[in-house]
Fold:
Amino acid sequence: MQWTSHKDQATLVVAALSRPDLAGQSFEIGTPDALTGSELATLIGAWVGRDVTFDPMTPDAFGQWVGDAMGSPGAAFALADLYGAIAKLDGDDMAVDTGALEATFGVTLTRAADHIKSWA
Structure:
């Protein structure tokens, strides 16, 4: 899955606000690299200086876990539904062409590993 940070989202918003020709269009966004849960755990582990593992959960279990943490049954339902739909997609169905995105907006998006390295 491709991830994105609030910094890249803000970079794209600022670029879009100066481009009236893009009005009314929608764009999928993401990092230039797609990562598995295990790959993301490895990157985060390097940042925190200890092993981090990825333990997959079913969409329903994940939704319930986050919903309980937030105290929101609605969030539990929405996340379970969202991740359940994502789980049914083929491998590249969510792939974002970040090269085209960068060219359209005139920006450079940040790789997930570089985002993590920038955390204070």
User: Anything to note?
Assistant: The longest helix spans residues 73-87.
